[in-house]
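Tutorial, part two.
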Amino acid sequence: MIWAAFTILVLIAAVADARSYRIPNWISLALAGLFGMALVVAVAVNGQPILDFWPHIAIGAAILVLGYALYQFTGMGAGDAKLAAAIGLWTGFYGLYMWTFTLAVAMALLAFGLIILRRALPAGVSLKTRVFQKGAPVPLGIALGLSAIAASPWFNKALFGF
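Running the prediction step on this input gives:
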């Protein structure tokens, strides 16, 4: 149930970023809150020590700081930084490698796919969606969301059995 809510939230973020180049703050806050709920369940129901989750919080905080720096000094959006930090809460140290790997693949596929789609549009065709316009930036939220789903434990268990 929690992974279904996680998936829905990151998909909403990806669609919002594709449509308007904006990721609403409520999505990142909901992901962080959902992680908090999962943490409470893991501690209260499963009896896991709360200290087992410090890496998750450290990764989320580190990604938030890095994302803020990228927002200040590059073209990365603030919504992308907040979404990445919220997703980072879920990865911890063990899931970080899988998530960053799938993020790199998703970013490359998205960038190349948009280049091909933008070049394939006939001259004079104007689409209302900015993402398909030549010269428009690549919405990172799409890659963040899809890579978070691809790296999630439920997805890997359902698809690959591990």
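Residues 2-160 form one domain. In part three we will examine how such features are distributed along the chain.
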